[in-house]
Amino acid sequence: MHLSDLLFxxxxxxxxxxxxxxxxxxxxxxxxxxxxxxxxxxxxxxLIVSVSGYTYAxxxxxxxxxWMNEMKGFGYGVASLASVHGSTSAHLLAAAxxxxxxxxxxxxxxxxx
Length: 113
Fold this sequence. Notes:
20% of the residues lie in helices and 35% in strands. By secondary structure, it is α+β, with helices and mostly antiparallel strands. Strand 5 and strand 6 form a beta hairpin.
């Protein structure tokens, strides 16, 4: 199984990995602490899960919990997750480069007139 074969969903302190083509649940995990909102971030070889004041790292291929941080002093609510280790498909990078080139061309044409 490869990461590109998986989709992840989470709610009510639970996370599940589904096969992207069939929707079959491949694994599920329940947070031992926290409740309610469950936010997910795939960061390389880690699935980061935030559940009401707790942050967990899971192995995205197996669902095994790798670590947990209680995030003392941060409070509760809906967490925002971000990563610098994301990946972007080559076609998206090419589209972004084409959009940037078109924007520069439009600005140059407008400035010259």
